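INTERNAL AUDIT FORM
Audit reference: QA-55
Scope: verify that the stored structure record matches its stored sequence.
Auditor: D.O.
Record contents follow.
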Amino acid sequence: MNKQAYTIRNATPHEFAEIGQLLVEVYAQLEGFPQPAEQPDYYAFLANIGDITQKPGAVLFVAQAEGEKRIAGTVVYVGDMRYYSPLGIAAGEQDGAGCRLLAVAPWAQGQGVGRQLTEECISQAKKQQKAQLILHSTQAMQVAWKMYEAMGFKRAEELDFLQGNLPVFGFRLPLA
């Protein structure tokens, strides 16, 4: 597929339901990732993603191509690590920001959308003079995992955790 430029912008409240549906669709299609019946609370969290914007420093970004009404992708930027995860994961990370819940619509995959959304999180963290950007991924998210490594993120085993029976792996990108 051709890579094209997407506009990255803050999501608006009237888009929250569409973004939640996108997250549920993308995550449920990941081979080896728990399904909604296995982790209903997690999928309810995804479906209601707009709620995350109530957290201090949290921004829900979307990617959209010019002239396209559909949302091509989404990511959550967390400027205050105390609010990175309801599980308290990485809450103690000093001078950091977080990048969470990256998802790209199936029709837009392979066009650089995920990279542009991740670059927006890096840019935001740099603007806020954060020393590092933290994110998490799973074995089922190999496309994103490889992209993160190509962008300079390094594995941070001390940030690993289990979500139910699912191993979740931490990554860190030094910014300073």
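Auditor finding: record pair retrieved intact. DSSP finds four helices and eight strands in the chain.
Action required: none
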